[in-house]
Design a protein that fits this description.
The complex is a heterodimer of chains A (314) and B (358). Chain A contains 13 helices and no strands. Chain A is mainly α. Chain A has one domain (16-118, 146-296): ABC transporter involved in vitamin B12 uptake, BtuC. In chain A, helix 3 (44-60) crosses helix 10 (194-220) and helix 8 (172-182) crosses helix 10. The longest helix of chain A has 27 residues, at 194-220. Chain B has 358 residues and is mainly α. Chain B is built from 14 helices and two strands, in the order E-H-H-H-H-H-H-H-H-H-H-H-H-H-H-E. Chain B starts with a strand and ends in a 9-residue tail after the last strand. The relative contact order of chain B is 0.21. The mean pLDDT of chain B is 92. Classes of the chains: A mainly alpha (314), B mainly alpha (358). Chains A and B meet through helix 5, helix 11 and helix 13 of A and strand 1, helix 7, helix 12 and helix 14 of B. Chain B: It is found in: Cell membrane. Chain B: This is ABC transporter permease.
């Protein structure tokens, strides 16, 4: 018991929780933006992979870190555009199209990586984002290590939470975006473009997802591995429902998830000998399913989610 | 200005030609990554064809690869018909394989006539259980089965690794995480001498015919389609929608489980954690290419298998990454989706009428 308490009170634990949460914050925000406009984006898992690979590859080829981030976001937006064209003006199955985009983005990323580096055996490293280490602030007890020794990408993620919240709740664009996911006919009647809003939301959301991937290769690690995304995208799809499509709750959900994951890793070192290690590896996925089941009952899905809308047809 | 409008229902011929066109388009688009990799494009296509059908051995290899894809393709096809999104065939395949090695490596010693049906049944049952769970979570709690089945794939694969390092580990395996070999009496024998093609293939064909008959000729099949077309209307008409969904889930999971048994008992002889290079996910592409038709699944599975086998042998000769196959498979899915769109809708130009001056 005392051990558990000392874990929960340690600053390294909460710093790890925020670090684990960062890619999920990007991913949940991205998925939330797509779904709020009425489009489920199951391309997320592949877009994570594409973002991770693109950001890493750009830096490995000599680009500065932030250009790598931009490249990752553009790659994400590009795959988002494919999903958006298939599902918005063409109105095809969002499930199947999303899975197709995941397959496409993953295979494009893997193929590109293998073609660019045909004979490497150990993944080459880049110099990733370093902890910011803001003077004075990072010396504060507890908050210093937890908040002020994270990398710039974690701060970008936190900034994006505010940005998405601000756009959705304080701007007329956000009103239109939410309306297009609930009642596209009404948006059309106001003379706004349903297609434009949805395509834009899916592209922006996909760019955010790709940033989640970029965090993995450019901050959490310093190289690209096959299979490194490992279901994080799917976990985000579960967390969106848990977060009831709200940016603030998305942050909370991602943080709770990060805290749980950081906790079980620490628990593993305490009781590791008694339980097979795989039990701990399974835990995040099981937790996501539990979160989904708990949240599903009262879930207030965007009303037009999954429903295609065609101009000129009521 | 352009507008999208529905087209009158297309003829059966068009519906047969569409997936073919999609497959060809995907193969043609594969030239782009080939060029990107600096490979001689026509030589590459030639090598792929040679690897797929250049010899009896090559052709049987393609059918061997098609076998699990027929099972997982059927699994996806029946579930998608009922709009039950089973994306978990990959996990259910592993559950089937686990059940197969659990029973087939010495727990029961019996003649092949008993043991083979037993491992098949056990695998089907394990797969069925693996899908009934998520289906129940959906019907009971409304938890989206797409997400739960996707997450379960990861959980099950880790569980398999745990078993292979623990309870099911082969003590003679020199420390490798693999199961003991399946007893000879539990193995699906080879179909042709000195080839790897095994009795799992004809079994897969039989399942395709059975599923076809089930879907087209039985009340159960009719109910499955009714639930898929309009669940609310089906419920209103007094169909037991929940029961239909759970039964489809069981059928779909069982088919995926059989894929696992067939791979272990027909091909590998033991279980490792890399048994399936994504057969479950590729099954979704197979089902979509087949237009969810069970007989079409057979043809589509052979095509997807050919993509994998062809790309494998081409990449060995030219040094192009074999991830090319995954790219072609993904492109096939997207092309067939687009094809389905153009079968149902047409894009027409409408002259813009300006109401103010008109």
């Amino acid at each position: 018991m005392a051990d558990i308490l000392s874990i929960l009170l340690s600053d390294s634990f909460w710093a790890a929780a925020l670090r684990i949460a960062t890619p999920l914050i990007f991913g949940v925000l991205g998925a939330l933006l797509c779904e709020r406009s009425g489009v489920l984006n199951l391309g997320i898992e592949g877009i994570f992979v594409a973002g991770a690979m693109t950001g890493w590859l750009a830096v490995w080829m000599g680009a500065p870190l932030w250009l790598g981030v931009l490249a990752a976001a553009l790659a994400g937006a590009g795959f988002g555009l494919i999903h958006a064209i298939l599902t918005v003006p063409l109105g095809l199955s969002q499930h199947v199209s999303g899975l197709g985009v995941t397959m496409l983005a993953t295979s494009v990323a893997y193929f590109t990586y293998r073609t660019a580096l045909p004979d490497v055996t150990s993944p080459p490293r880049i110099t990733p984002f370093q902890p910011l280490d803001i003077p004075l602030l990072s010396d504060l007890p507890f908050v210093g290590p937890v908040l002020f020794q994270q990398t710039a990408l974690t701060w970008l993620a936190l900034g994006c939470v505010f940005l998405v919240w601000y756009v959705l709740n304080r701007m007329s664009l956000g009103v239109a975006l939410r309306a297009v996911g609930d009642n596209p006919d009404a948006v059309d009647a106001q003379g706004l473009s349903v297609y434009g809003l949805r395509i834009g939301a899916v592209m922006a959301g996909s760019a955010l997802m790709a940033l989640g991937g970029a965090f993995l290769t450019m901050s959490a690690f310093d190289a690209f591995f096959f299979g490194m995304v490992n279901g994080r995208g799917w976990i985000c799809i579960a967390l969106v429902i848990f977060a009831s499509w709200r940016p603030g709750k998305a942050l909370l959900g991602a943080l709770l998830f990060g805290a749980f994951d950081a906790f079980q890793v620490r628990l593993q070192t305490e009781v590791g000998a008694m339980v097979p290690g795989q039990v701990f590896l399974m835990a995040p996925y099981i937790l996501s399913i539990i979160a989904l089941v708990v949240a599903a009952r009262g879930a207030d899905y965007p009303r037009a989610l999954l429903t295609p809308w065609f101009k000129g047809q009521r | 200005m352009i507008r999208i409008e529905p087209r009158p229902p297309v003829s059966g011929t068009v519906r047969l030609v569409l997936p073919l066109a999609a497959a060809l388009a995907a193969l043609a688009l594969t030239a782009v990554p080939l060029l990107f990799a600096g490979a001689p494009v026509f030589t590459a296509y030639g090598l792929m064809l040679k690897g797929v059908a250049g010899s009896l051995f090559a052709f049987t290899e393609t059918l061997t690869r098609a076998t699990p894809l027929i099972f997982t393709g059927l699994a996806a096809a029946v579930a998608f018909r009922a709009r039950l999104w089973n994306i978990g065939a990959e996990g259910q395949l592993y559950l089937g394989a686990l059940a197969c090695v659990w029973i087939g490596t010495g727990m029961i010693d019996a003649p092949a006539l008993v043991l083979v049906p037993l491992v098949l049944l056990a695998g089907a049952l394990a797969g069925a259980v693996g899908m009934i769970g998520p289906a129940w979570l959906r019907t009971r709690f409304g938890a989206d089965e797409v997400v739960t089945t996707l997450l379960l794939n990861f959980i099950i694969l880790i569980f398999v690794q745990m078993m292979l390092e623990g309870a099911l580990k082969d003590p003679m395996g020199l420390g490798w995480p693999q199961s003991e070999p399946v007893l000879d009496a539990a193995m699906l024998p080879p179909l042709i001498d000195r080839m790897r093609l095994h009795w799992g293939f004809p079994l897969a064909l039989v399942m395709a015919v059975l599923v076809h008959l089930l879907m087209s000729r039985t009340v159960w099949g009719f109910r499955i389609r009714a639930v898929g077309e309009n669940a609310a209307a089906a419920r209103h008409a007094g169909l037991p929608v929940t029961r239909v969904l759970l039964s489809v889930a069981a059928l779909s999971g069982a088919l995926a489980g059989l894929a696992g048994v067939s791979e272990v008992a027909g091909l590998k002889g033991y279980l490792t954690a890399d048994l399936s290079p994504g057969f479950g996910y590729a099954g979704i592409v197979v089902a979509m290419l087949a237009g969810l038709s069970p007989l079409g699944v057979v043809v589509a599975a052979v095509y997807i298998a050919a993509v994998f086998v062809g790309a494998d042998s081409m990449s060995r000769e030219l040094g192009v990454s074999s991830y090319l196959a995954d790219l072609t498979v993904a492109l096939s899915l997207i092309c067939v989706l687009l094809g389905g769109f153009f079968a149902r809708y047409r894009i027409v130009r409408v002259p813009t009428v300006d109401a103010g001056q008109g």
